[in-house]
Every structure is written in C-alpha cells, then in structure tokens.
Design brief:
single chain, about 270 residues, 5-stranded mixed β-barrel, two-stranded antiparallel sheet, 9 helices, 12 strands, about 30% strand, globular
C-alpha cells in the first residue's frame, strides 16, 4: 500500500474511495440495499462506491453532510470498510442493523442500543488481544437512547453478542425446549448450545455480527461509534414466523438520524 492509500489522498485499494467522497458522520449497514433507504430523504445523494458488498452514498440532510455505507455480512468486511472510511475522513459511525433477540423480554421490532459487545469474532482478535473491550462511545449511546425515547419506540440498552458463523452460532428451539442445529447436515456440538445459554445467563440482550469489530476499531483508532439494531428474530430460533427483517427498520433509521444530528450539534 502506498502512503497515499494509507492517508486517504489516493483512492483506497478496495472501495476506491478518496478524500472528499465521504462525510465525517456516517451510517453503516450490512445490506447494500439499505443504503438507499437510509439516504432516501437526503438532498443531492451521490453514489461514491459500488464495489462487491460495499456501497456508499453521500448527501445532505437538514444541512448535515452524511454518508451511508454497507459492510456486507460479518466482521471482515466491516473492518475493511471502517479502515477505508476513516482514512478518507469519517469520524463518527453509527451502525443500523438487524439482530437476534437473546433476552426473552425483547419483542420483534424492539430496538437495542449497544453499550458494549462480547467479542466472539476472529477479525477483532487480529487487531488486539481479547481482553481489550469493545465499548460504544458514551456520547453515541446517550444520543441514541435520547432519540429513541423522543420517538416513543420500545428500546433497551445493553450488551450485544457479536459473533462469526451465522449458522454454527444460531440454533432452533425444539418443542421440548432443547436446542437444535441450523447448520448443514445438523452439525452441532454441546459447546454451541452452552454458548447460547451462557450469553443468556450473562444478561446479553441480542446477537449480531458487526458491532464487536466496529467498536473495537473505533476504540483503537479514536473514532466515535455506536450501534442500533432492530430485533428481527429470536435466538434460539422458534421458526420462520418469527423472522422479520423489516419490522421497525424505518423507526431505527429515524432514531439513528436524530442521534447523529445531536452528535453533530455537540461537535
């Protein structure tokens, strides 16, 4: 990598982003299709990246320059995008995503504001030892909670389990209350079931695949980051009727915008 690629003066090697392409304040999502939904109310939206799973749009909302960008699924793509966004000027990052509810009190459509994450991914371990905490910026947590209260939506704030291997870490809840595999050919070990029960016993609210590495890198790089997820399914999974990726996503996007506006005003 050249010096220009490292400091943002040249095109970034994967996304092609350059200094000036992205705003200081950016939203992250997994699904490239959600980028357009986040930017739907912006003035002058301009697509600045469309490579692999990475799509980014920059525009203006209520006088605030914003970027929305997709990470794809999981920690590796998230880390890559956070690196390249930071190198071209992004400094505040809010993830807007889906998650599985671990706490039985959570209902589909509830929002979870992550205060910190259990780092159960391999990518963040490539950066720093596992004892390093993945903690959301307190200002981002405060802004997201305040925006959710103002919007009148159900939400909780707490710990998120951030994991790799969607199928190996998920489970089906059988009629007798036991856990079953979601992996091909029923691959399963006792340790997989124990891990889910362990997270529930520890009071972890939800699980997803990106918050851990986002918050870890934000801490290492001096960025401000937060995470807001909709509870779109249950973990363990009761079945197809308990999966709704879109329920309350509009409210999550609204809350994230209000929180970002507050953070920008504090700047």
């Amino acid at each position: 990598m050249s010096a220009g690629e490292a400091d943002g003066t040249a095109a970034q090697p994967v996304t092609g982003l350059r200094a000036g392409d992205v705003a200081e304040h950016a939203f992250l999502c997994g699904d490239p299709a959600r980028v357009g939904r986040i930017a739907a109310s912006w003035k002058g939206p301009r697509e600045v990246c469309a490579v692999r799973e990475f799509r980014a749009v920059t525009g203006e909302w209520r006088g605030l320059r914003l970027t929305a960008a997709s990470t794809g699924v999981g920690a590796p793509g998230t880390a890559l995008l956070v690196e390249e966004l930071a190198k071209v000027g992004a400094r505040t990052l809010i993830r807007v995503g889906n998650s599985g509810g671990l706490d039985p009190s959570l209902a589909l459509g509830d929002l979870v504001v992550t205060t910190g994450a259990v780092r159960d991914d391999g990518t963040s371990a490539s950066y720093v030892r596992p004892e390093y905490p993945a903690v959301a910026d307190w200002r981002a947590v405060d802004a997201l909670c305040a925006a959710a209260r103002a919007a009148g939506v159900r939400f909780r704030a707490g710990i998120t389990w951030s994991l790799d291997a969607f199928y190996a870490r998920n489970a089906v809840l059988r009629a007798d209350g036991s856990l079953g595999s979601t992996s091909y050919r029923g691959y399963w070990t006792a340790a997989h079931a124990e891990r889910i029960r362990e997270m529930q016993a520890a009071g972890v609210l939800n699980c997803e695949m990106e918050a851990g590495v986002l918050l870890t890198l934000a801490g290492l790089f001096g960025l401000r980051a937060g995470c807001l997820c909709v509870v779109s399914d249950r973990t363990p999974w009761p079945g197809p009727s308990a999966l709704d990726l879109d329920r309350n996503m509009g409210a999550a996007i609204e809350v994230a915008h209000a929180a970002m506006e507050r953070l920008a005003a504090d700047d």
